[in-house]
Design goal:
Radius of gyration: 45 Å
Length: 562
């Protein structure tokens, strides 16, 4: 108590403000400070450099709410003569004594279903770019949306997906020469590029549910949840304060303040990951980014940005596997922003990887022949799956996987196509791509291969010998080609149905039952021993002689009787 009584009035005021801040619950305040401030909770002060002819009374009349309070400025700044102040002297004016005027912010960009409201009790409205935001306004970005807010001094606040921000205070002092801004990040993540014009006397505070800090840098990230606040400094320094303790977080470091606990000692942010091996072209979905090996990486944080608008966060995801997957994106050019995340949840430095999506219209699945199949017909049917909203299918068939000189390059309607001429024997490659109604072709399907092995040719009966005995038709056939055998069918009809007799043999002497006399049909074809593939039938017409051609001579003696 004796210690408190010995303190000057301004120091007591500082302590009381700090006590009120902590009594209201843990928070994070990010603010630029002046040399006279004694702690993170101190109210900001305006720094003024004395010019020739300035007096404290004149300055008080110009800038103070109550000009009669100029003695406070004299006392706190140890000014000997209020009417004669050496030019160049730096005077500090407590913000509480200065004239105040409202400032505003602007919603520069809004992506997705971003909402805003003028105050906490008002109804939510759809946010639109160009929207003016005054003190008390709130902005909410959904999980699939983001927003960019610009303060009067050019500070840019990138509100990340799933975040909510309140603009508690937007104030100008000393005819606009000083700004005091207090923002409350209620949840989510905020990326700040502060005061790019390097204007003096610009004070920014950001409150979160679990800590408080003083910003001495210009670029940093803050993420907030009910349990913890994480701060990562990219440029400058931040004093992170919670539970009565404070740590200095310099550029390249980060710290964590859990609710009700002191901040952890700052640690080095993980370096930007190596993204050189990631694919640059995606022709099918989902997008799969292979993650590099990196010491200290417990998980990964990735965002997909539009290439021509890096503020537009299209998708974001945290993953801990070997790949980071994103479900869907339209055709276009994008950038993956990737960060390694350590065991404390602190996000490391950014790595950017440009890539292109060219996946629509989707290519069909190749169904027939199946991959690696052997076909025996010279003109096989090529079949594929049906894809919605596809007008035609481009089909290529080649003898090499690079398709530099395709045998066929045709557009087909429907879901199948048959080559108009015989294919060459050997390995063949084919692929297909979809075309929409406007003729826009999508990516090629992965090539698929099959092997064409010609089936047996026609049977050569030119060297066959045929004779009849009383009960049999006797055939002598040349040996069938290696790996093949004959199938012979004897029938009364040219289509060989029904069969009077059927026999199989690799060649040599064959015996069939002798048919009755008259015109008959003998069909012969070669068949592959390995898979039963049949060659084309060769059909010959045979005249079967009568079994006893001279039997009628026995009837001559009986003619007189008849």
């Amino acid at each position: 108590m004796r210690f408190l009584l010995a303190l000057p009035f301004r120091a007591l005021l500082v302590l009381l403000l700090g006590a009120l801040c902590f009594a209201g619950g843990p928070s994070l305040a990010l603010a630029q400070t002046t040399p006279l401030q004694t702690g993170a909770d101190a109210s900001p002060s305006w720094q003024y450099t004395v010019r020739p002819g300035d007096t404290l009374i004149a300055l008080a009349q110009r800038y103070l709410r109550d000009p009669a309070q100029w003695p406070i400025i004299q006392r706190d700044n140890h000014v000997a003569n209020p009417r004669r102040i050496p030019p160049g002297t730096v005077l500090l004016f407590p913000v509480g004594l200065l004239r105040e005027q409202p400032s505003s912010a602007q919603l520069v960009q809004a992506f997705g279903a971003v909402r805003w409201r003028a105050q906490a009790s008002a109804a939510w409205q759809v946010a639109k770019p160009g929207q003016t935001l005054v003190a008390g306004a709130q902005v909410q970005a959904p999980e699939d949306g983001s927003a960019v807010i610009e303060l009067a001094n050019g500070t840019r606040l990138a509100l990340q997906p799933g975040s909510m921000l309140s603009l508690d205070t937007l104030s100008l002092y000393a005819d606009g020469l000083m700004a005091d801004t207090r923002l409350r990040l209620q949840q989510g993540q905020l990326e700040i590029r502060d005061n790019p014009k390097r204007l003096p006397n610009q004070n920014l505070r950001i409150l979160t549910p679990s800590a408080q800090a003083v910003v001495r840098g210009t670029q940093f990230r803050v993420s907030a949840s009910a349990r913890a606040t994480r701060e990562e400094t990219l440029a400058g320094a931040v004093d992170l304060q919670a539970a009565g303790a404070q740590v200095r977080v310099n550029a390249g470091l980060g710290s964590l303040a859990r609710a009700g606990q002191a901040p952890l000692p700052p640690v080095r942010l993980l370096s930007a990951p190596d993204v050189s091996a990631m694919p640059t072209l995606f022709e099918q979905l989902p997008l799969r980014f292979p993650l590099p090996e990196q010491a200290g990486a417990a998980s990964w944080f990735g965002q997909i940005l539009a290439e021509n608008d890096p503020a537009h966060v299209l998708l974001q995801k945290t993953g801990s596997g070997k790949t980071l997957n994103f479900a869907d994106l339209p055709n276009g050019r994008y950038v993956l922003r990737l960060r390694a995340v350590d065991a404390q949840g602190l996000q490391g430095l950014d790595a950017s990887h440009a890539f292109t999506v060219f996946a629509r219209p989707f290519f069909p699945m190749l169904t027939t022949p199946v991959a690696g199949a052997t076909v025996r017909t010279a003109r096989p049917v090529l079949g594929w799956s049906t894809v919605l909203d596809v007008a035609r299918t481009q089909v290529q068939l080649a003898v090499s996987a690079d398709f530099t000189h395709p045998l066929f390059d045709v557009q087909a309607h429907g879901a199948q196509w048959t080559p108009p001429t015989d294919l060459p024997a050997g390995a063949l490659f084919w692929r297909a791509a979809s075309l929409d109604a406007q003729g826009q072709q999508g990516p090629w399907s992965p090539p698929q291969t099959f092997k064409y092995v010609p089936g047996p040719g026609p049977a050569d009966l030119s060297r066959a010998a045929m004779r009849f005995d009383a009960d049999h038709l006797l055939l002598t056939l040349p040996p069938a080609p290696a790996g093949q055998h004959y199938v012979l069918v004897l029938s009364d009809h040219a289509d060989l149905q029904p069969a009077l007799a059927q026999v199989q043999s690799p060649g040599g002497a064959l015996t069939l039952p002798r048919p009755s006399s008259g015109k008959r049909y003998l069909g012969a074809r070669l068949v592959d021993d390995s898979d039963g593939t049949q060659g084309p039938p060769v059909i010959q017409v045979i005249d079967v002689p009568a079994r006893y051609p001279y039997l009628w001579l026995l009837l001559i003696p009986l003619l007189p009787v008849l």
